[in-house]
User: Fold this.
Amino acid sequence: MKITSAEFVTSSPDYETCPESELGEIAFIGRSNVGKSSLINFLTNSDGLAKTSSKPGHTTMINFFLVNDAWTIVDLPGYGYARRSKEDRERFHGFVSDYLLGRRNLICVCILIDSRIPPQELDLDYVEWIVSCRIPFALVFTKTDKIKPTPRKKNIEKFTQLLAERCSGTPKVFASSIKNKADRFELLDFIEAALATRS
Assistant:
């Protein structure tokens, strides 16, 4: 897939105010500070489209980006950021769950996992919940350029092994570095194929 245009549409503070749309949507979610905004900018080849921050928990609303005037990237608030209040975490989980369960034009959710660290219970629990809800998803292991190949491979294999012990089926898995154009093309090809299933 070639990206010819990408633009911010709107930010919604809850599911009820999400814009009406018939376009297919690909959502991105992951633990806070997993590199979600950087990956969205990399995929769309648009520096600054999604706002990046060195401080975790920066995304607090559901952000919509129109791509090629044909489909939409949806940037969801990260989960598991401990410095947010319990009330904020519950509110984020509530409207994100409403979006994932209720959005008719959601095609797939890309769950971002930090490839630099061993499997985390929080990530495994979230993926297990996605599976239980029968929401189509792919795993995207981020920041692969910041860890050596052997421990990276070990972390990814261990995560998929633990997930297989909890859930049936084999998810699509991607390794992603914002410095590797081949990773970008591979993920965009997957997104293109996923969107084609709706047409």
Notes: The chain has one domain: 6-196. The chain has a mean pLDDT of 88. Residues 24 and 195 are 6 Å apart (CA to CA).
